[in-house]
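2024-03-11 09:14:02 INFO worker-7 job=invfold-0412 stage=load source=structure_tokens
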């Protein structure tokens, strides 16, 4: 056999392999380019959502979480604006803005968007509805709908066995229940507390305070008769330890439910991809809840021989927090009410401030209105509940 024959055989064997490898490499490179392009679109949408959901305003609104990045201005987090901004940027960059059918279809590839706020999470997820067209025909549309806020809630019970007290998560099946406590956590140690005192068969009134504020957290152990301070210290440590995990669990549960529901809508629309919560480390989720922000998932868009499966995070940078300072009226006070102030130079604050007031301030009007504080007035230690906005500095 001639050497040319060997060459022809070699080419016949290797050429298809070379072509296949070349095509695969080219295809992979192209897929990576498309993936990077899509990721850039998602990142741009996240930037727009993060920026636009912070509403700076000069006038007070009914809802005010107390965030302030500019002097004498308030910043409210508007979850709906954040969701709308994220989706609008996607529509524009995919060149489908204004095309309702295309927007509805793209929504299916965005199974969940979570707005993580100071005291709770709101998740925007897909819902389907029937739209009647001008010709009278029915069309199934998919639209993102924002859920009510889910608070970061935890319940524990205090039970007694003989002379010993202990606490357990949830409601116990055995032991004598002394009291049941429901905690609503926030991104710091400020909480809302309510519960039921079984020993006296009465509701525990709602109160707000910092978990580790020893002068105000007595409700955490209501009904305990022995070693109360030591027992309360143990509960405080427990609550501080689990706060982050409760927030992460709440956010994760809401997102998982939204993503699972999206699978039903996707199948009904002929999408074979199975949506799921992307692999996320505990540290990654802990970082995501360090500040007010937004998480969005974009999945299932075909990019070559695989599917896009990305999650994007955005943090609403809040440079400083508004502080509303407390006062209680004394003999020199012009206004005979418990007040909160935004300005330490306010003349009423200077006259009515209590040096040992604990806590001295709240970070939102809701907190200030319902706060319980303690301090010494006229040489008597007193409890002050509920505060009104000062009509002079007008917080």
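2024-03-11 09:14:09 INFO worker-7 stage=emit residues=395
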């Amino acid at each position: 056999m001639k050497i040319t024959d060997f060459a022809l055989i070699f080419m016949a064997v290797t050429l298809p392999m070379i072509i296949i490898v070349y095509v695969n490499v080219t295809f992979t490179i192209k897929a990576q380019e498309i993936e990077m392009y899509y990721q850039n679109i998602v990142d741009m949408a996240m930037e727009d959502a993060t920026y636009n959901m912070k509403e700076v305003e000069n006038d007070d609104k009914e809802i005010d979480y107390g965030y302030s990045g500019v002097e004498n201005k308030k910043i409210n987090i508007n979850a709906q604006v954040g969701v709308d901004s994220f989706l609008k940027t996607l529509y524009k960059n995919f060149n489908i803005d204004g095309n309702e059918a295309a927007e509805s279809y793209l929504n299916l590839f965005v199974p969940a968007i979570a707005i993580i706020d100071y005291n709770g999470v709101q998740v925007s997820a897909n819902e389907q509805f029937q739209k009647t067209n001008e010709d009278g025909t029915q069309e199934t549309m998919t639209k993102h709908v924002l859920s009510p806020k889910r608070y970061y809630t935890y319940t524990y019970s205090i039970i007694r066995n003989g002379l010993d007290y202990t606490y357990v998560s949830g409601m116990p099946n055995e032991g004598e229940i002394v009291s049941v406590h429901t905690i609503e956590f926030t991104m710091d140690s400020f909480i809302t507390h309510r519960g039921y005192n079984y020993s006296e068969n009465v509701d525990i009134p709602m109160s707000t305070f910092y978990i580790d504020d020893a002068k105000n957290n007595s409700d955490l152990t209501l009904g305990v008769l022995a070693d109360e301070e030591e027992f309360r210290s143990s509960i405080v440590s427990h609550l501080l330890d689990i706060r982050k995990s409760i927030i992460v669990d709440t956010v994760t549960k809401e997102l998982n439910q939204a993503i699972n529901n999206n699978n039903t809508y996707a199948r009904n629309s002929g999408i074979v991809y199975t949506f799921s919560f992307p692999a996320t480390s505990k540290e990654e989720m802990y970082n995501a809840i360090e500040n007010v922000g937004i998480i969005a998932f974009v999945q299932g868009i075909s990019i070559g021989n695989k599917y896009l499966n990305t999650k994007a995070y955005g943090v609403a940078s809040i440079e400083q927090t508004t502080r509303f300072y407390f006062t209680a009226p004394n003999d020199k006070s012009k206004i005979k009410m418990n007040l909160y102030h935004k300005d330490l130079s306010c003349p009423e604050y200077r006259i009515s401030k209590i040096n040992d007031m604990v806590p001295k301030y709240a970070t939102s009007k809701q907190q200030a209105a319902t706060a319980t504080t303690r301090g010494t007035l006229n040489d008597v230690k007193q409890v002050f509940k509920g505060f009104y906005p000062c009509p002079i500095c007008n917080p």
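2024-03-11 09:14:09 INFO worker-7 stage=report msg="Residues 1-319 form one domain."
2024-03-11 09:14:10 INFO worker-7 job finished
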